[in-house]
Structures are given as structure tokens and as C-alpha cells.
Amino acid sequence: MSVKLVGSYRFKDYPYPKNHPLRIPRIALLLEFLETLGILEEGEVVESRFARDDEVLLFHQREYYKALKKYGLGGRLNLLEKKKFNLGNFENPLSPASYWGSLLAVGSSLQAGELFLKGFIPFSPSGGMHHAKKNRADGFCFLNDVCILIEDLKRKGFRKILYIDLDAHHPDGVQEAYYEDDSVFLLSLHQSPEYAYPFKRGFLEEVGRGKGKYYNLNVPLPKGLSDSEFLYVIEGLIPLLKEIFKPEVVIFQLGTDALYEDYLSKFNLSNLAFLEGFKLLYEEFNKRAILLGGGGYHPLSLLRCWALIWCYLKGTNCPNKFNGKVKDFLKKIDFEELEEGDRSYLLESLKDSWRWGEVRGEVKGILEKVKTIFPL
User: Whole-model pTM above 0.90?
Assistant: First the structure.
């Protein structure tokens, strides 16, 4: 099967404010980076489209979407509207990204679903906005493209949808939407809400309710998660997952904020481990999947990781050492490091060094508890 990347340089036209973690034009940068590396061929990119109103309303509450659209079309929201819908604050600032950028991301994820149905392997890096709720914005996310995609697949006849989220933050918006739904199984590996956003959701004990009981599997993990621990957990989960759910389609959320360099997480992963963890899950389910992006706030780390995934999907060798042209491109990205330490390796090669470590008892205990709650 051939691969398709759904994206557009138009995302640059709908930026977040300059002080926001998502201010960097990630999708445009990714397209240019892949082209500079020489691994993006003619015909592999599908130009993103805007979602239609009726598509957004497959999931979102009409009143909320009406307010968001009102702003997008040049209207002003009053204080009551902003408070009710969690808009216009630092977390969810009103900007061109709020409506138009979000609408383009939703359209891209729906296109990925359409490409999947045509037999392609689709990757929509602008997708994965997993925090938005049915009736409000949350966690930098205004429209939940994941849930809209799931609803679109359900209306097309899919009854067994597996959603796997590898972002460092728990997908509380997706969990809330399908917590009582046995047609969607959610698996999320993320930072424990004991120390990370969204704080109130993402605990192991949250297994679903009613018909959805035991269709929600959270794996909250401790700070400093190493490559060894990440792969240990995934390898331990696969037999359980394959036994308890037989999906017709798999959706991956591939947010890169779980990587060591990302300043919005406390994990210590290399991009090699992230790729390997994805591959283990992807190949277990016969490579029948729709791939979405997600978090990722260090642009160099994000670009290198998604480029590795793209090379894997294409079945092509990665140009590991960067030439002068690639280095010049990366150096020109407007980004200020927020952490001290030598990050020059990000300008030298595509692949990280492995970040192995001992598998701590705490991590082993989490996996054992999962197996107790979800017995084979």
C-alpha cells in the first residue's frame, strides 16, 4: 500500500499567538523538511481541505461551534461566551488557529479516513487534537478531530475502532466522548495525571462505564520514562490488547511531546524508541491504520521523529547524517531553547542515540496492575 501525507502550507496562514507553545508552523515545516531531506515524492502529499459545518457537528455541540465560528468570521465573543466555552485565555487563545486552523486540521483527518478506505496508508500530522470537549475548548485544542473522525467512521459502518494514543498527555476529550461506548477501545500511554496535564483524568482505574466498561485502558507513567521502560510496557500490553479487542480499524495519535527534548513533558524517550513502540503496535494490527499527529512543542525534535516515521511508512532508508542544506534549514527555524544543555545533535542527524535504562519497579508494578484489571 502506498503512503499519503495530508498537509498544506496554508497552515502558516492561521497561526497561534507568538507566546503560545503551538506558535511554530509545524505542518509547513514538516513538508519543507521532508522535501529538503529528499524523502517526499510527487503525488505523496494530499492538499488539506477545510471541514464542513455538518462534519464538525458530527461530534461538537451546535452552540459551542456557533460561538467558535462567530469569532472565526470576524465577530466578537463576550465574556460570558469566553468563560462558558473556555476560550480567549492563555491555554486556548483566540487567533486564526482557533477556527480556521482547527477547521483545516479536522478536514485533514477526515481526508486521512477517506484515504484509508481507498487502501492508502494516511498520515495527517495536523490531527490528534485530543483534548477538545464536545462543548468547549481545552488543552490548546478547539475542535476534536479524533472524535469527528471516529464519528465519521461509525456512520460509514465501522463498529470496532481502536484508538491508540502515544502523546505524553492523556486524551481526556476522547475518553470523555467514548467512556460508555463499546465500539471504541481507547489505549493511552501518558504521563501520570498525578503530575501532568490534564491532572483530573487519565488514571489506571478509569476503565469505562456501562457498555464501555473495560474499553478504556489508561497507562499513566512516571517521570523520566526511559526507552527500556516504554518498550517494556508496550511489549507487555500487546498480548492483552489483541485478546480483548478485535478492531476493524486502528487510529494512532503520534504526538511527539513524549520525547526527551520536549519541554512540556517529563519523559526521557529517544525518537528511536518512539518509532519502535509505534512499529510494534502498528505491525501487530496488520498495518491497517489511520495516523494522526498530536502534541510536540520542540520543532527540531518533532520534525526528526515524524520524518523517521515517514521513512518507515514508505519503506525507505533514512538519510541519517544531515548535509549542509538540511542543517541550514534547521538552523533557520525560529525557536528558542528553554532548557540548558547541548542540543547540537539535533542539527547533525535524524536518529537519536538510544536512552536505555533499568526498568523500575514502579513501571513493572503499573503493568502488573493493568493485567490484574484487564485479565486475559
Answer: yes
